[in-house]
Amino acid sequence: MNRHIAFDRLHNFRDVGGYRGGNGRPVRWGRLYRSDSLGKLRGKDWDRFLDLGVRTVIDLRYDWEIAAKGRVPDAPGLRYHHLSIEHRPYDQAALGPDMETGRFLADRYAEVAHDGVAELRRALDVLATEDGGPAVFHCASGKDRTGLLAALVLSLLGVAEDDIVADFALTELAAERLLADWRADHDGQEPVWPGYGRAPADIMRFFLADLAATHGSVRAYAAELLGADEELLAALRKNFLEPVGEERPAERSSAVGSA
Hints:
By secondary structure, the protein is α/β, with parallel strands linked by helices. It has a single domain, classed as Protein-Tyrosine Phosphatase, Chain A, CATH 3.90.190.10. Helix content is about 45%, strand content about 5%. A five-stranded mixed β-sheet has the order 1-2-5-3-4, with helices on one face. The N and C termini lie close together (about 10 Å). The relative contact order is 0.21.
């Protein structure tokens, strides 16, 4: 199954439906998406995006990224939320060639998880109260900040850690195209850091293990730092898990296309 939905300029737009959640209830197809920057949407890509019926967009980027690259276009009924969850900017492409990818990025994710509690809680609130259509959250490449929020939401929906890690690692299918975008923006240069754009599974495994070591579990982290109570969790389950006794087919037909 290929979860990536084909766009010309977006490389990492994908559906997170189908994973088994709490009590065996699957995450609903066509209700929650993750993506690289929606500022790239135009022309036929914009039409494809509108066809998905998305009604809620959460943009996780810095102000300066939005100023430089743009944001999702306005559309009737489309709600836009800017929630910059990362507070310590760094240049991945300029990191030294000997920097170990998994441990380094897991440590950065831990910083975001603790620096960005207000924005992460707001993101959960938006998703819990989302109505009238699907939601999508994104950053620049759809890997790091987006991967963190995806892991948090899927964990709170009861999805198994192995599935969360596998979902994170799917960015590898888009890595070459994301790298090509970087080269185009930098006059054909190559990143100093070989790990740029990569999404090896150990990044997410380290991060989830760190949260569990510090807080007991991802759920405990969310309860302690984000105030994710049972009311919020119930609202997330209602929005994004299949109703009891109902299950959609294992593969969503529109979630196809090359990464």
